[in-house]
Write the structure tokens for this entry.
Amino acid sequence: MSINKGALAAQKILEEFGIENPNDFSVEDLIHARDIILQEKRISNADGRIVFGKEKTIISINSEIKYTGRKRFTMAHELGHFELHHNKNTHLEDNSLTLDYFKNGGQEYEANQFATELLMPKPAFINFTHGKVFSPELLRSISEHFQTSITSATFRYMEIGQHPIFLFHCRDKKVIYWKNSINYYRKVKEITKLEPPSDSVAMEFFIDGTIYRKEESAQEILKSTWFETGEYDSDDEYFEYTIVTKNYNTVLSVVWEQ
Ligand SMILES: [Zn+2]
């Protein structure tokens, strides 16, 4: 996989400001260094937005975001728009969840790639995760260590982590898209734009709001829950961990084999 535009722009700004330790700088400072006005306010149905003015650019972050990691990721995402898309737009309303934007392609994906590389540079990420067994707890510790959202930590792990995983992104009881680690091929059932599988943990949330406690994060499922299984396949034990954002009615399902 070639290096993407977003990641390159992030490496550039890290270099420009001489930042060596990824968990030891403030995104606010970078935003201010670019002479951008940063404000927090209530925004409906979006994590952040950027307005490119003639004189000044304004970045707004939704004050309703509870988690600092998620706020930090959103700031980095908006800064990514400034670094990458300054000349193409005047106004950019992220009218969806920043974290929905990990699907390939377009400005939103580039801004997410920027934020990902800025907050979790590849060498530091590999160094931190190397030799650690995959678990929901590991994802939580990555998000704490790099001070970023659990969702962005999970997508980063899917891209460059050691243990292969599948991610299914669902919203309003529909599967929006799925992605998988490189070289981890499983035939996914025909579910895109449809309901998640009836025996999935994602569906449990949509049916009755079930969210498992930390200690029960890794729920046992079967291979056939999310994947096609042939006549001669054994229906192996898989695991599913759901990352729920109640306000937006979204579930990110992490699926893996031990
Ligand atoms: Zn955006």
